[in-house]
Amino acid sequence: MQIFRPFSPVSLTIARLSAISALALTSICLPAVAQNPHTADPTILTSPSVSYGDGTATSITVKGMRKGQNTGPRDNKPLKLYSGAKNGKPGGGGTSTDGALQSTAFTSAGTIAKNLNFEGVGAGFPNFTVNSAPPDTNGAVGATQYVQWVNESFSVFDKSTGAIIQGPIPGNQLYQSLGSTHPCAVNNDGDPIAQYDKANQRWIMTQFSVTNGSTSGYYQCVAVSKTSDATGAYSVYAYKQPAFNDYPKVGVFNGNYFITYNIFNGNTFGGARLCAYDGAAMRAGTSAQEQCFQLSTSYAGILPGDVDGTIAPPSGASEYFLGFGSNLLNAWRMHVDFTSSANTTLAGPYTTAVATFAEACSGGTCLPQPGTSQQLDSLGDRLMYRLSYRHFTDGHEALLVNHSVNPGAVAAGARWYELRPASGGTTGVTVYQQSTYAPNDGLSRWLGSIASDKNGNIAMGYSTTSSSAYPSINYSYRTPADTLNRLGSEQTLQTGTGAQQRTLSRWGDYSAMTVDPVDDCTFWYTNEYLATNGTFNWHTRIGSFKLAGCQ
Fold first, then answer.
1. pTM for this one?
2. Which domains does the chain carry?
């Protein structure tokens, strides 16, 4: 996975402040309300590029695919820097300029019931050898299974027991039916995403192919399962991109699939690319259209909205896309028409002011570890996967997202937002609540992923580290009854017992918090940790839990 450096935020105001108690004000610095948080006259783009990709092939079943990851040479995934990059600098030790800082611990009114906690794919996992870094840890929960995909293999687990069902299977095995010489079949380049289409009960599995891309082409390889069984057959597609399609992120919205990319021409950043894919055609295994808009180099690290829950977005609602700028959020809305691309539009950016923040490590590398001078990447230059969307039974809609910022006392804290649609859901977003979670305990918190259950309980998972505590996996939560802008009752999923050594700074790149589509209550989280000091020896952990009262 490659790193870009899109922006360096410095200072602005919060978009909304409501119903906060005097107690909260003592530990969260929140400025005045922004009355008009979004632009009135966005740019409306038309005439997307259209492609049907290569092939509409059907894979063999996952049960029949080759298992075991090749040892191969170790690959420290290279960094591709955004043109506005800044070098990383040490964080912490200074006065905070964060406008939404939560610097004290908080106990939620909710109680938690922990469920499974088991080892994911990584060092020591049967039939798997770590051959690259970072792991790009992600996964999703389906009807009966949990699928985890890391660089560069995926596994299917029984979600009731955590037992392995199939895997690890190299990602490119999904695409062999495209032909033995197709780049998606030949290359196993990673940057994977495993997603679950909850409404249609299908798995979406995707990674890129970029090896020898300048001669063979840069591809996004996409597989959509025939059923809700992740071990069955898939319809497979390959979409050629105009240049290096870095950091692809997936969202499911109103039956269609959306992927965002950061395009690089060589080492030169070319802007964000926002694409829509015909979900109905992919589920049917027929030729499926891709429609894309290319943005300028002013925008990078954009996430597509991804629906949680059983209630669909309002009929005809346009997909959300979100990125950040200098103390603001940039939102776009895409209306897609696969019958006539002339009707497809992308409107934005709608800008929403948020509380003052600065990127963790200026977007670079400064996260400390015990017993070594080797620091870890912050990924502070982008929003963290996913942009979770939910439509609640009372009719209100909410989006959740997070990113890593500099809280002042330590290198990184997790800034999170609960957003609501603006202008009746036709434009951008407003801020309902926001906070930088950074209790004053010496730990940095970063690389988060956030989601909500059907009752509106929110959970965020993340990595933690300090000069005296090994990188570990924690999560915190809140209920709707809790004071706004507060997160707490921190839990440990896995305590790390090792530090990454010189000269490897690559860490995580992303993690994944998802919600069980059956009970719509159980949170599932996966992230990276180390068991011993070293390099290319990462482990991953998978855990599930839910809050009391959600049935």
1. 0.92
2. 44-67+102-310+317-547 (2.130.10.10)
